[in-house]
Design a protein that fits this description.
By secondary structure, this protein is mainly α. It has 5 helices and no strands.
Length: 161
């Protein structure tokens, strides 16, 4: 069982991680991803999938495309800038690391779709999507800081002498 002091230290460590310079970089990358997301969502809704008659299906198709392209954008910028100092993860082929990144993001992506769909009847769909992005960004940062670009390694390379 953890003592109150240990619990306090874990919470303090978590808060330092969240409010760090790295989190600001992550937020900047996230902002660029948000621009990609909102832009693609608009283009997909109004042009790419405009022949889909069911509004819910059109919205979900548009969300999938927008989220995928924003995720790709964010992965590359986070790898090249936010976590550039963690070179131990650059030994992985980028496609393998993108798989890790995507797995780490799946919960945030699922929650973003859920929140957008829950909020869309009450707000303009793009505003609903922005609210969903804000709600899921902290979880996304923590998962990627700890796993994708962190110290936990699930894909270990064997050493050959």
């Amino acid at each position: 069982m953890s003592s109150p002091f240990q619990l306090h230290m874990h919470i303090a460590s978590l808060l330092r991680r969240i409010f760090s310079r790295r989190f600001l970089k992550f937020g900047t990358v996230g902002a660029s991803g948000t621009v990609v997301n909102i832009g693609v969502l608009y283009l997909a809704q109004n042009y790419v999938f405009n022949t889909v008659q069911t509004p819910e299906i059109r919205l979900n198709l548009s969300l999938v495309l927008a989220i995928f392209l924003a995720t790709l954008n964010n992965f590359f910028w986070n790898r090249l800038w936010t976590w550039a100092d963690r070179k131990q993860h650059h030994h992985l082929p980028w496609l393998t690391q993108f798989g890790q990144y995507t797995l780490a993001c799946w919960l945030s992506i699922a929650l973003q779709i859920l929140f957008t769909n829950l909020l869309a009847p009450h707000f303009f769909y793009q505003i609903a999507n922005l609210i969903a992005i804000a709600l899921t960004s902290v979880l996304n940062f923590l998962l990627n800081d700890i796993w994708t670009f962190g110290r936990i390694k699930f894909f270990k390379r064997e050493k050959h002498d």
